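Worked example

This section walks through a single chain of length 433. The input is the sequence exactly as stored; nothing has been trimmed or padded.
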Amino acid sequence: MISLFGYIEKELLRPGVTLQLLWQELFAAREKSYSYSQFCFHYQQWAKKQKVGMHMEHKAGDKLYVDFTGVKQKIIDAATGEIREAEVFVGVLGSSQKAYIEAVESQKKADWIKVNENALRFFRGVPRCIVPDCLKSAVVKADRYEPQINATYKDFGDYYSTVILPARALHPKDKSLAENFVKTAYTRIFAPLRNVPFFSLEECNHAMWEELDKHNGMPFQGKDYSREYLFDTVEKEELQPLPVSFYDLRAFAIVKVQYNHHVYLREDRHYYSVPFQLTGKKVQLSYNSRVVEVSYNNVRVAIHQRNPHRYGYTTDGEHRPSQHKFVSEWDADRFIRWAAKVSPQTESFIKELIESKAHPEQAFSACMGILSESKKHAPEDFGRACKKALEMKVYTCKFIRNTLKYKTFNLDAEEEIRRIMDDNETRRLDILN
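Given that input, the structure is written out below as tokens.
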């Protein structure tokens, strides 16, 4: 019976396989064979002597444990000699313990998603769940019962049809495989490369992957098979298939629907329509490089092709009120076109004024005032006033008016400052007298 225990150990990794099932297949039909209780006793005694690791408790294809190491890799800038530190990501499959490692610029969300995806591509399949530690790129708010997962990371999990299952705080066993590999990586990967200078992330990763292959191909202590062998014979076939294309990084934002039933995507400075009934409501934007989706109470209410045109409007006719044609009386494009008719300097000034505001509509009243003022002056003078404002980086209606009033648009900066100081001193003396 003992000769079968190695086979039983590996079979237990397969989903649904239990000791009782194996006993029925191997011994139940034989006369004068071991009872189920005897079989379990002898196997457990054998397992203790073999010091079977925790991986025996994980079913094949079930979990991937991911984390960053505490030690970073040093990357040297070949041009300046400056040294920067790169984060090192690790991932370990629960059953076979096949591991992945990669150096990356930071622990920020985009880098975190990238290395998680690279790990899945390395394993050529997707486990049923990914178990991260509670770092900010993965978990927004740690909680013993209901941790709040980062929205982008959750979306990544949905795209790969896997569940994000954060390790519980104060439960070290939840992440012991990742932590154990981190310790092993220090010995088997970091130490052999400790004196090797790296001048790029690519160099560093290729060197670490060579050491990683040795680690994955090395037999387990006291076993005649390796992580790579266990992965190829047991775990690989239990992983879910990969999507054809890579994940398109998605971002999320909560915004308020404006009076014109559009929402403003600040990253693009562009407006997208939503059903007019949601005017004044807060909605969730989710967007990637291709589309912008709008949801209200977890229900998608609008989807648009992403448009990079700054200050433009993307409008779905179905979102307008019935028998109402949507007209945006004030928008950035209108003011910029109007300014271009006055002079090139005026056009540049209006663009800078709009850019200087956190939200374009904050500049609309000032744009209206400035462009109305242009009707009262010669285009050449007004253009000079706008050029002066651009040089001094002062984007206010008051500055334009004062420049035109006192004809200071021909003064250089020092003369302008002296005149302002003289005017201030004169006003001070008038007040004192």
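What to look for: Residues 52-56, 323-328 have pLDDT under 50 and may be disordered.
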